[in-house]
Amino acid sequence: MSKKRITILKSSRFTIVSIIVVATLLLSGWFYIDFIEESKRIQNISKNDFNFFIYKWFTIAIIVSMIVAVTLSSYIYSKNNKQRMYYKNIIDSSSNIVVVVDKNSIIDVNKTFFKYFNKYKTLEEFKKEHESISDFFVEDEGYIHKEYNGENWLECLIKNSNNNQVRIVYDSKEYYFSVGVSLISPKDGHYSAIFSDITKEKIYQKELEHTNITDPLTKIKNRYYYNVQIKKESANANRYFYPLSLVIFDIDYFKKINDGCGHDVGDNVLIEYTKLISSHLREGDIFCRIGGEEFALILPYVSKADAYKIADKIRAKVEEHKKIFAITMSFGVTEYIKGEDLELTFKRADKALYEAKNGGRNRVVVR
Question: Which EC numbers does the record give (predicted)?
């Protein structure tokens, strides 16, 4: 529990005790003065005796009041402490990370927090190096950022609760969490944030997505991925006015390899030469297997003149390789025309490939 919260509890207990003491003194004083006044009328006692009598009874009243106050205070403190520890134990037993935060810093955490951030033993140690858990947020698309458009992560999460996932990297480990936030102290601007670990689900989802977009034999991307990416890249090319080229190519006489040497050899040829081609591509190039021995290469920011050079370089590397089986490839190259139907772009590249085949194979044709 934070120091501020403990201070508030202590202040509340002090106020209650003070009220009890004052009330007890006033009631005791009133009762005994009334009693003595009545006794004075009945008995003729001296003034000194009267003053001493009042002093004695006031002293007794104060002592009694203090005993009552201390006893009551101890009872209240014990009850509050038990209740506080009860809820603290419940929160600490949660498998989720529970933190109390404001817009700038972290105020309190549960024990689970330190299972993830295990370099630190206490919150004080953590706060010496970091202001908030948001220091570890990775700014990926679709996940909460530490700050976005001048707003911190709490404000973003409150405004858009649908985007409630964060990616955290700590000590070379990657975690994914679903986050829920509740306002617990409007006056202080304190929020409770619960981080539920969804890392296993995310890993499974990524593996499933990878399986859906990956060719099982060659391990490069498949036809489905090609269809998704060509739409995405053409939309970006239209929006940002950059060139986009498409290369369609296949292995010459591949049927003869399968028929003459068997499908195992044919599969090994596909695996070997896709590795070769992949090693000569840029990071942003998109290489997909779209048919049996047919491939597509999406080249963002590349004109068809430069795409020709890239395709011819690959053609030469394939011809030189000669591992497992000496093969050649034919290539059709085209450039996406802004706003056109993607089917037309593909047909144009495919027609260029057809011309390369009819022109003697092992060549590049641009249309």
Answer: 2.7.7.65
